[in-house]
Specification:
The complex is a heterodimer of chains A (230) and B (234). Chain A has 230 residues and is mainly alpha-helical. Chain A contains 7 helices and no strands. Chain B has 8 helices and no strands. The chains are: A mainly alpha (230), B mainly alpha (234). The interface between A and B is medium-sized, with 26 and 25 residues.
C-alpha cells in the first residue's frame, strides 16, 4: 500500500472517528456537573478543543524536526515537509483558538483572558503566522528554505513552554490529564476523548500527507515543464 | 588557533565600535528612540493622571522601550554590513562562522546595554519623581538588564542576519523577533517589577524570575549559535 492510499484511509478513518466522538460526546459520555449540580454543557467542547490542541503541538514538532533534517542534509524535500507541517499546524492552531475562545466565553464569562496558557498559545499562533510571513519575503529558494528551517526550530521552543505552562505557573486554564487527585476522567469520558484524539491525529496525518502529495505533483510538473521546454 | 579566533573576534568587534565612534549612529538613533518612547508614554498616560500609579507600570514600560530600541539597533547593525558589502568580505575571509556570530552579538549587546544604561536614569527622572523610587538595591536592575540583553542580542543577531536579506527587512524583524522574545520579556518584566516595587519576598521573586531569564538565555543562545552557521552561509 503506498503513502497516498494510507493517507486516504487515514482521512476516512479520522473522519469517522471524530464524527463518532462528536455523537459519543452528546449521547454517551457522562455529563460533567458544576458543584451545585447543574449540567456543565460547555464542557462538551473539551472533546474537540483538547485533541486539536494536542495535535497542533505534535504537528508543530515536525516543523522543527524537518527543519533540523533540512539543515543537516540540504535536501529541499525536507523543507517542503516542514512547510506543510506548519500549514497543518496553522489550521489546528486556529481551530484551537476558535474553540478555546468559545469555551472561555461560556466558562469564564469573557472571550479572552491574558493568563499564561492563553498568552503563550497566542504567541505560538503569532509564530506560526510569522513563519509564513518570513517564507514569503525571501525570494531565493535555497535561502528561504534555510531561514524557514532556522525559524521553525526557534519557534518550536515556545510549544513545550505553552504545553507545560499550566503545570509551572499559576493558571486558571484547566489541567484535566495532569494525574494526581481530582484529575482524570470517568471511563466513558476518557474513551470518547481517546477516540476524538486518535481521530484528530489521523486527520492531521492525512492532511499532511495529501498536501505533500499535491506539492510533489506540482514540483514534478514544474520539472517536466523545464524538460519539455513549454 | 584559539588566539587567531580571539584576534578575529576583536577585529570584527573593533570595526563595529570604530564605526560607531565615528558616526555615533547607533547610540544617537537608539537614544533618541528611547526619549521619543517616553514622550509617547507621557501622551498615553497623561489622562490617567494621579489615578494611575506610574511606578506599577514602569517596569513593563521600560522593557517595551528596550525591546523596540533593540530592534532598531539590530536592524542597523546588519544594514551596514550588507549595503557596504562587508558581510561578503567577512564570509570570504578565513574567519570561523562562530567568531562572526560572537563578534556581532557582542557589538549589539554593548550598544544595547549602553543605551539601556543611559536611558534608565532618564526614565526614573521623568516618571518616578516624587514617588517612592526603586525599593530594592539598584544593582538588581543591572542584573536583569544584562541577562535579558544577552538573550535579546543573541536571538536578535541571528534573526537580523536573516531579515536583512528579505524584502521586509525591519518590519519582518519585528514580526519574527517580538513573539520569540515573549518568554524572556515576560520574565524580565517580572524580575524588574520585583526589583522596583519591593516588599516582603520580593528578592526571592526576583531570583525565581531571573532563573527563567537565565534558562531562556542558555537555550536561545545555544540554538542561535548552532543555527548561525547555516543562516549566514545561505
Amino acid at each position: 500500500m503506498n503513502r497516498t492510499k494510507i493517507a486516504r484511509l487515514m482521512l476516512a478513518l479520522g473522519g469517522v472517528l471524530t464524527t463518532a466522538a462528536f455523537f459519543m460526546t452528546f449521547f454517551w459520555a457522562n455529563a460533567s456537573t458544576f458543584p451545585d449540580g447543574r449540567i456543565d454543557f460547555g464542557q462538551k467542547i473539551f472533546y474537540f478543543h483538547v485533541p486539536v490542541a494536542e495535535a497542533s503541538f505534535l504537528v508543530f514538532f515536525f516543523t522543527a524536526f524537518y527543519g533540523v533534517k533540512f539543515l543537516m542534509t540540504k535536501d529541499r524535500r525536507f523543507d517542503t515537509r516542514a512547510k506543510i507541517a506548519t500549514e497543518v499546524t496553522l489550521l489546528f492552531v486556529l481551530l484551537t483558538m476558535a474553540t478555546g475562545i468559545l469555551w472561555t466565553k461560556v466558562a469564564w464569562g469573557v472571550w479572552w483572558l491574558w493568563e499564561p496558557r492563553l498568552t503563550t498559545y497566542f504567541i505560538l499562533t503569532l509564530l506560526v503566522i510569522a513563519y509564513f510571513v518570513l517564507r514569503n519575503s525571501v525570494e531565493d529558494e535555497e535561502r528561504r528554505a534555510v531561514y524557514a528551517s532556522a525559524f521553525g526550530i526557534l519557534a518550536f521552543i515556545d510549544a513545550p513552554i505553552s504545553f507545560f505552562i499550566t503545570r509551572w505557573a499559576e493558571s486558571v486554564h484547566p489541567v484535566v490529564l495532569a494525574g494526581g487527585e481530582g484529575s482524570g476522567l470517568e471511563t466513558p469520558m476518557l474513551i470518547t476523548f481517546i477516540v476524538a484524539q486518535v481521530g484528530m491525529l489521523m486527520l492531521g496525518y492525512a492532511f499532511y500527507e495529501m498536501r505533500l502529495h499535491e506539492e510533489e505533483i506540482k514540483e514534478r510538473l514544474e520539472a517536466l515543464k523545464v524538460t519539455v521546454g513549454g | 588557533m584559539a588566539s587567531a579566533s580571539w584576534r578575529q573576534f576583536k577585529a570584527i568587534l573593533r570595526k563595529d565600535l570604530v564605526m560607531e565612534m565615528r558616526t555615533h549612529e547607533m547610540i544617537t538613533s537608539m537614544g533618541l528612540y528611547a526619549i521619543l518612547t517616553m514622550v509617547v508614554y507621557q501622551i498615553a498616560l497623561t489622562e490617567a493622571g494621579e489615578a494611575l500609579d506610574v511606578r506599577l507600570v514602569m517596569p513593563g514600560l521600560i522593557w517595551v522601550a528596550f525591546i523596540f530600541m533593540s530592534l532598531l539597533g539590530l536592524n542597523r547593525s546588519f544594514v551596514h554590513e550588507k549595503d557596504q558589502g562587508c558581510i561578503d568580505a567577512l564570509l570570504l575571509s578565513p574567519v570561523d562562522r562562530p567568531v562572526i556570530f560572537f563578534a556581532k552579538f557582542s557589538g549589539n549587546l554593548l550598544f544595547l546595554l549602553a543605551v539601556e544604561v543611559l536611558s534608565l536614569p532618564v526614565f526614573a527622572f521623568l516618571f518616578l519623581q516624587g514617588r517612592e523610587g526603586i525599593s530594592n538595591p539598584i544593582w538588581l536592575l543591572g542584573v536583569v538588564m544584562l541577562a535579558a540583553s544577552v538573550g535579546i542580542s543573541g536571538v536578535g543577531t541571528l534573526l537580523a542576519t536573516m531579515t536583512v536579506n528579505t524584502s521586509g527587512k525591519d518590519i519582518l524583524l519585528a514580526v519574527v523577533f517580538v513573539p520569540l522574545m515573549y518568554p524572556l520579556l515576560r520574565a524580565a518584566v517580572g524580575a524588574t517589577f520585583a526589583a522596583v516595587i519591593g516588599g516582603p519576598g520580593s528578592i526571592e521573586t526576583f531570583w525565581s524570575w531571573m532563573a527563567w531569564v537565565a534558562g531562556f538565555d542558555v537555550i536561545m543562545l545555544l540554538v542561535a549559535f548552532g543555527l548561525y552557521e547555516f543562516v549566514i552561509g545561505a
